[in-house]
Amino acid sequence: MVSPILSQLNRPDGSAAYKCPATGYNILGAVNGPVELPARRDALKPEEATVEVFVKPGTTTAGVAERYVEGILRSVLGKVVLGREKGFPRRGVIITLAIAGGENMDRGDSYLTILPSLLHAALLSMISASVPLSMTFSAALFGVTKTGDIVRDPSPTAAKASVSLHVFAISSKGHLLLNESEGRFDFDTWELVHQRALSVCQGTASADGDVTMGEGAASASLHGLIREAVEDQIYSDYAYKLDSI
Amino acid sequence: MQSVTRPPQNNHSDTALNLDPTILLPPGYYQHTYMQSGNMSAPAVLLPSDEVPRDNLPTDNSNPLRLGPGLRILSQPSSKGSDHVLTATQAGMLSIDAKRNAASLLTFPNRRYIPTVNDFVIAQIHHSSADFFHCVITPHTPHALLGQLSFEGASKKTRPMLKQGEMVYARVQSVGVGAGAEVELTCVSAATGKAEGGMGPLSGGMVFDVSTGMAARLIRASSAPVENTDPIEGLVVLSELGRKLESLGGFEIAVGRNGKVWVDCSDAAEGAVKATIAIGRCLQETDQQNLHAHDQKKLVTKVLRELKLVS
Known about the structure:
The complex is a heterodimer of chains A (about 240) and B (about 300). With about 240 residues, chain A is an alpha+beta fold. Chain A is about 30% helix and about 25% strand. Chain A has six helices and nine strands; from the N terminus they run E-E-E-E-H-E-H-E-E-H-E-E-H-H-H. In chain B, helix 4 (about 270-290) runs antiparallel to helix 5 (about 295-305). Chain B: One of its GO terms (cellular component) is cytoplasmic exosome (RNase complex).
């Protein structure tokens, strides 16, 4: 499995390349911050940092769908950033996410399929830019098929065929940070998918042993994946310090 | 003369660790968790919201523990009043300075510089107004202010007339209080009225961009005692360059914590431009490729040969 790469780009303050192992989406994220905001946008939140998110599709210009997903990302990331830390109030944290590869999405397709990859790329870029965060998180996509099976990370084709789609972001402390659902479903289904999301993100098998086969190597928790990527980069950046110990 | 490294003297070692002295824990706070810090195999890497393992903290309780950036103290309500935990707000490697009773986090080197009082920076003049020079420390941030008279021996009649684009080596005097406050720079020491550590306008030479992590590393390496012959912070590139360029008359260097390095070898006559570029390239490449000590030596030899500075 390809693990995410941090701090690959030289010019931005932080960057990350994230390839979703299941759906194949390849996201390149870059973060600049704290920077000065243009045109009095700082006055809206005078005591805090403002988080700006831009999503750039690989093949077309950004449109309504990108604006919509930017809104979702901004609200999640804005809650995680500690905007009152030194140097951050009244400044902006600019996150740019470029969709560099993966299956082509048609206009009108659900953006939920790519949302977890965008969230992971944004989080890792912010970590790489040392933006103060209150917590980390990881996100997962689930589709519910006509027969009621819960499929993790369905492909765009499978996602189109499924009855409902759910994206969950679970914080490092086990809180539910984001819940975006689409389609027809009832509360019981939602609860099942929520349990599944908790086990996928935190890596604990749920009570009924729901961690199914077929997930193989990816069954290691998503939190663990994020942590490993960060640790690898820190150890390579500070190799000179580790040698001397 | 060999390589003269401008300032960081030892008395500014606070800036090297970038400590925020306002966060102090009362002495003896961790007394009840006294433990021998046993395993030093792999230093702890913390992610935001991770708690600092208590057995890693300095056990000397006579002084208050000082927290660097990236760490904060949170109080958690519990059955016995409230309990305090130290958590990380950034990802990084935990670094404990037992001697100074300080804990800080070594974060990613590519990050943006955030002005901190007493840091040495290399600023570029953007424009000047009646009382101030407006300077750029990092791109896309509001200008920092440098008083027209905050130079050594400056008065209304005799003061440096700096033009747009000129560089100064200055110290962060204040960062203000509250949101959106202005950053003030100074080129004199408040105590002595002298330009200590080579502060003032930088004439000649050239400025190279490095990562903020590399700048901090260079400062730490140069503030270490001279008699220490081991590579400090894994850096041998400067001493190697100093040795090889000694015949050309040596060079002068100033490191700003905002990720800028000013290099000047005006003593080298016709080789000055070549030598300056060689030093800049060696520093940037060491930074970007994250080179080991022996690779740094190889790089210096390669670059100097390519520029035909040494045979």
